[in-house]
Each structure stands twice: as C-alpha cells, then as structure tokens.
Amino acid sequence: MLVFPNAKLNLGLYVTGVRPDGFRNLESVFVPLPWCDALEVLPAADHAESTLTLTGIPIPGDPTTNLCYRAYELLRADFNLPPVRQHLHKVVPIGAGLGGGSADAAFALRALSELFELKLTSETLIGYARRLGSDCAFFVANKPVFAYEKGDVFEDISLDLTGTACKVVYPGLHISTAEAYARVQPQPPRHDLRSALSQPLETWRETVSNDFEDALTPTYPVLREIKQQLYAAGAAYASLSGSGSAVYGLFPGLELPPNLALPAEYLVWDGRL
Ligand SMILES: C[C@@](CO)(OP(=O)(O)O)[C@H](O)COP(=O)(O)OP(=O)(O)OC[C@H]1O[C@@H](n2ccc(N)nc2=O)[C@H](O)[C@@H]1O
Ligand SMILES: Nc1ncnc2c1ncn2[C@@H]1O[C@H](COP(=O)(O)OP(=O)(O)O)[C@@H](O)[C@H]1O
User: Which of 55, 85, 231, 239, by CA, is between 20 and 30 Å from 189?
Assistant: First the structure.
C-alpha cells in the first residue's frame, strides 16, 4: 500500500498555559498542506524481521526510532501484526513546523489498519496517534480544525482555503519543538482564532499571530526577513508555521505564488492549498 503523508500549516498559534504534565496548552488552526512524503507499507515474509528503509532527506536516528516504525510497533503490540516492510521517501523538511514526522506516523497507522483489516475507527486511530506525538492526531481526519489543549483536541471550523496560492520557505534551520516551547512565555489568547479567521484574509495580518514567531525571531532574524520578502511579493498573509523554521505566505487571487530571490540551499514549496 502506497500513501502520501502531507504536511500542515498553523494559521495562528497561541501558547496559553503550562499543563500539569509539563506540556503546554495551545490554541491554533491546523490546515493540510499538500507537500508530501511517500510511504509504502507491505506485508513481509512470515518469519522475516520488520524493516523500514529510508530515502530522500536524511532523518537523524536509528530507523527503529522513526515514527513510522513506532506506529507499527504500537499496533503490533495490540493486534499481533505480522512483520512488515516499510519504505519512506522523505520530502517534507524536518524540524520545520510542518508536522511531517507526525503525518508519517498517522498515515502509517491508517495504512496498517487498512492493510490488515483492523477496522479501527477514527477515534481509536486518534488514541494511538496521540501516543506518538501531539500533532499526530490532526492527520487522522486531515482537514482544517481549531486545535486546543496539547493541540490534539479538535473542533470543526468552516474555513475553505482550497485553491489559494501558497509559498512555503524552509531556510534550513532545524528548530527543536521542545527548545521552541521553552522560549515562549504562555499568555491568554489575544483573539478568538475562529472568528479572526472567518474574516477576509487581508485582515489576518492584524489579528492572527504565532507566539513562536516573536520568541524565535530575535535569535533567528532570517525568519523575519523571509516574512518581509513574502509580504513584499504580494502575500496577503505570511507567518511562521508551528515552531518553525518554515515561513509561509498566502496569495489569494494568484494562479501561482511569485518567485523570490532566495539562497539556493533553501527548500521551497509552491502550489495551491
Ligand atoms: C508546535 C506544534 C504546533 O502545531 O507543531 P510543530 O511546530 O512541531 O510542527 C506542536 O505543538 C508540536 O507537536 P509535536 O511535534 O507532535 O510535539 P511532541 O512530539 O508531542 O512534543 C515534543 C516536545 O514539545 C513540547 N510540547 C509539545 C506539544 C505541546 N502541546 N506542549 C509542549 O510543551 C514538549 O517539550 C515535548 O517534549
Ligand atoms: N518519519 C519521520 N519524519 C521526520 N522526522 C521524524 C520521523 N520520525 C521521527 N522523526 C523525528 O521527529 C522530529 C521532527 O519531526 P517533524 O514532524 O518533521 O518536525 P516538526 O515537529 O517541526 O513539524 C525530528 O527530531 C526527527 O528526528
């Protein structure tokens, strides 16, 4: 079975408090971004070892620590699954705030459920996904939502950005999520993101913000520079996604986003949501 785990963007993000488990409560709106990895999951021979092979962008750590492998291990423990062969071709940058690893985990859970006819409901899959990471649960339903608590509890929103031209720029900084959270002082949300995002996109610049951006920009001024370039090129809204370091711009009314003069080593995704 071949699946294409997509990334996500955060439209606004407030870190609102520290939880008893040490994690932060947040409020954000998550939307799918069609920048995708490719993951193949196949049954292996009966007595073979389960394997995960990797191509594309290198992922640090032993393959057994990879979220695709950990997703398999979770289900194997509960459903006595036979061995599998997984292959991941990594395209979405790592540590970018695009949720690429979380998507791989959620898509692996969904693929395994289908391959072995486990008939897991979305609710059950979300339960497994939460055990692999706060962001993973979003990728089970994979549609725009207002997310709160650890970013793993959702409320439906009516937000349709389908077809909006978008550019995502990854400057090659791997910012660890834990390090980014440690730099943010939690505070109450400044706006209700649900109502702010229901207003015309041109108004978001004044109302929709990401707490990680203010916390990280003094150390990584390149984030501000990319955002300024996106606005100068005509973006109606630009922001850091999640804990960075990817910065995106939305260009409604355009067929495709304009080209930017960027260093050759930056990774750029251009397309429509
Ligand atoms: C910031 C966000 C916003 O969407 O995305 P990314 O920028 O990583 O894509 C998420 O909250 C990232 O979720 P995820 O990447 O799954 O994080 P996890 O693996 O669960 O946790 C990594 C570390 O981040 C911190 N963490 C994460 C989530 C949360 N609600 N509070 C936290 O304090 C903890 O220090 C934890 O050890
Ligand atoms: N399949 C995977 N793809 C990406 N990163 C993975 C994967 N499995 C485990 N990881 C680990 O997860 C961390 C980053 O995950 P990722 O979702 O790409 O970033 P972010 O949380 O910024 O969106 C890295 O430290 C990486 O080593």
Answer: 231
Whether pLDDT at 254 is above 90: no
Q: Name the residue with the closest Cα to ligand 2, atom 18.
A: 94
Which bound ligand lies closest to the C-alpha atom of 91? 2
User: How do residues 146-162 score in pLDDT, each as one tens digit?
Assistant: 999 999 999 999 999 99
Residue 255: band (very low, low, confident or very high) from pLDDT cuts 50, 70, 90:
confident
Tell me which of 28, 134, 170, 184 to substitute to probe ligand 1's pocket, judged by most ligand atoms within 8 Å of the beta carbon: 134
DSSP result, the chain:
-EE--EEEEEEEEEEEEE-TTSPEEEEEEEEEEEEE-EEEEEEPPTTSPPEEEEEES--SS-GGGSHHHHHHHHHHHHH-PPPEEEEEEE-SPTTSSS-HHHHHHHHHHHHHHHHTT----HHHHHHHHHHH-TTTTHHHH-S-EEEETTTTEEEE-----TT-EEEEEE-S----HHHHHHT------SS-HHHHTTS-GGGHHHH--BHHHHHHTTT-THHHHHHHHHHHTT-SEEEE-TTSS-EEEEETT-SSPPP----TTSEEEEEE-
The single residue of 37, 90, 104, 135 carrying the catalytic annotation is: 135
pLDDT tens digits, one per residue of 44-72: 987 899 999 999 999 999 999 999 999 99
Find the mean pLDDT for residues 92-120: 97
Q: What is the mean pLDDT of residues 226-233?
A: 97
- Interface ipTM: 0.96
